[in-house]
Amino acid sequence: MAKTAAECTTMVDIRENIDRVDRELMALFAERWSFIGRAAEIKAGLGLPADVPERVRQVRDNARANAAAHGLDGDFYDDLWARLIRYAIAHEKKLLGEE
Q1: 6-9, long-range: CB within 8 Å, 24+ apart, which pairs?
Q2: How many Cβ atoms are within 10 Å of 7's Cβ, its own excluded?
Q3: What's the CATH number where 66 sits?
């Protein structure tokens, strides 16, 4: 059963809810990944490269701002998003034949 952190009274509650949140995060990452694949298809049709530095900066700035809005460490999430972006760009490069 979904609980907030404050509603958890045992480590079993904590662990069950962390696992639930992790499953939800993975579902969101899967949804995000579907957009990466579609972006590559659209970029191919428009002749755009996988790596668009202006967009990379924008996504990283968004990650930092979204983290701050939730009281999270912007540096940590900027670093995490930088890794996500590098992986996505490498994937798009393969799809676009840019390797």
Answers
A1: none
A2: 10
A3: 1.20.59.10
Please give the residue range of the domain that contains residue 85: 5-96
Contact (CB, 8 A) for 60 and 81: yes
Tens digit of pLDDT at every position of the chain (99 positions): 899 999 999 999 999 999 999 999 999 999 999 999 999 999 999 999 999 999 999 999 999 999 999 999 999 999 999 999 999 999 999 999 997
Domain count, the chain: 1
pTM as predicted: 0.88
Could you give the C-alpha distances from 99 to 39, 60, 88, in angstroms and in order?
A: 17, 24, 14
The CA distance from 81 to 86, in Å, is 8
CA-to-CA distance for 57 and 16, rounded, in angstroms?
36
